[in-house]
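Listing S7. Sequence submitted for prediction.
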Amino acid sequence: MKIGSLDVWPPVVLAPMAGITNRAYRTLCREQGGGLFVCEMITSRALVERNPLTYEMIRFGPTESPRSIQLYGVDPVVMGRAAKIIADEDLADHIDLNFGCPVPKVTRRGGGAAVPYKRRLLRSIIREVVANAGSLPVTVKMRKGIDDDHLTYLDAGLIAAEEGVQAVALHARTAIQHYGGFADWDAIARLREAVPDSVPVLGNGDIWTADDALRMVAQTGCDGVVIGRGCLGRPWLFRDLENAFNGSPERAEPRLGEVVTMLLRHAELLVEVMGDEKHGVSDFRKHVGWYLKAFSVGAETRRLTAQAVSLDELRERLSGLDLDQPWPGEAADGPRGKSGERQKVQLPHGWLDDPDDFAVPEVEDALSGG
């Protein structure tokens, strides 16, 4: 898959996930297989204002190539300035634009999944970023729309292509669906038909296994896939995806002992990246349930393991498990992480009144992450 100057094989992208796709997790996933691995979402304002936390979030490892940053913002001028900083200071090799985040603190400011409803604002943001990104390829990730009555993805895809974006990714849910219900893969097919063939279309949503990815490509004609919740507690999914796209039937079905080894490797990388064992282990604890899903572990062991405060304590609490347990099969697949639909999408007052309104919303929060 060609994204501007980047050759991406297998045609797989790790979706930016707040609190997840830090340098430690990207390293772990890269060790399993190839693709494009995107850092956590950052705000353009925080980058322009030189927020120290933001600059720590976009610090890449020495072997990370290509380096991918996802930008979020609502002000075309600030977004353009952020893109120029990234290009001029060689902070990354690729810029992805977030027009898909459904989190209330983002959408209530007119950002993320709210932006594409304002067609002129969307076009202006993309135009400013592409103009200031120099030779760096710019891509877009979006959702179907606000809800089923306010779908935007076809217009947004065409606008992105017209403004020089090098690829478009669609999470085939609306913002109101959040991470609930099912992804509408037919929408990915419609986007692929609508957007010029020269612009790759990537599909996202309900890819839990490598074979799901193959089915999505076959069903929709998309050029590649974006992996989000499917890799939570399953970094070896990128090994499976590489095998799948290379035509190999080999799939990882690790025994519990192999899973525990991977789990501990993840925790150790977090400690190394964060430079503090207590902080690193504390940050890792949210991953424990994902790694152990469907294995016979016991509620008390799960609870105690998720309360560990050191690597030794983490190792000790896992040492009593039956590490010869085989892979649980289909019971281990399926949804992990955030789920559930929302009753409404938080939007600025009057946001849906006029899709052609060009007013720039309230400035985004300076803190990174979505």
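Caption to Listing S7: primary sequence and predicted structure tokens for the chain studied. The longest helix spans residues 256-274. The radius of gyration is 20 Å.
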